[in-house]
Predict the 3D structure of the following.
Amino acid sequence: MKILSKFIISIAVFCIYNTANAQYTDVINSNRPGASQSAFSVGTKVLQLEVGPYIIKEKRDMYPKYEVSGFGVDFAAHYGIWKEALELNIQGTFQNDTQTYPSLVDVKNERANFKNLNIGAKYLIYDPLKNKEDKPNLYSYYANKGFKWSQFIPAVSVVAGVNYDTSNNSYVAPSVEGLSYRGGVITQNNFSGGWVFITNFMLDRIGSDQTDFQYILTLTHSFNPKWVVFGETQAIKSDFYADNLFRFGGGYLLNKNLQLDTALTFNTKNTPSVLSLNFGASYRLDRHKDKIKTDNGTSANKRDKRKVRNKNRGKRKKNIKFDED
């Protein structure tokens, strides 16, 4: 609980003393098909839904030997609220499978439960591009397209949330049930040429008998505005389960609010071996409105109203002058 208290205090301090703005984009910016989260929020008044059904095979070659065959679904909902930098979200994975033991006749373990279910928030505390104009070099095309050392400075977000695990859940330690907590840090570097590097460092199920630490490193590359590919590694460490997973896949932008994707997940060990294939989609309901500011700090709406008033005032002056004549 002390760790959680310190984490919450840190988030509060960052929220008070930082006014970073999230990078809202004209097209959907999905976290899929990888398992990592982007540092940027979806933007205010944007509801983004992400879902990915998958099939999975596991096999353990050491005692006790077993095999797992089944399917599941990853899901998430993100909503930008209050500030551009703030996002509320719910994320989870539900799996249904059959665990069989080859050495034991007619022994099958039918399982169906949430592997994880989390409600939380993400806040962008630092954006290296905030209030900075990327002015083009009018004399050199290569200077505009070339490498810049400033790209090594990442955007940084913090995340916090609450997990819920049901009792008698086969996917967690036997004593884990009810509420626990999650906290983490996300960084994101946007390099030239369509390359993006994201890191997630998470401490999960804080306050339970199964505290998981995991990190995810994701590298994506967009060939054009429609196609993107990615590679990812995920390390999980706890007393209940440890693994190193690898993912490869890609996504296709069907339109500005809809993305389709697929990915393959596997590991390199046999305690157990993991092989999973998923297909997914991301869709957003976009009601975002930019808060455009004029040079004197007034909103665009007020500026337009002022123009109308001035125009009407000018008409009245002309009418008065005409009447006097």
User: Anything to note?
Assistant: Residues 3-22, 294-299, 315-325 have pLDDT under 50 and may be disordered. DSSP finds three helices and twelve strands in the chain. Residues 294 and 302 are 10 Å apart (CA to CA).
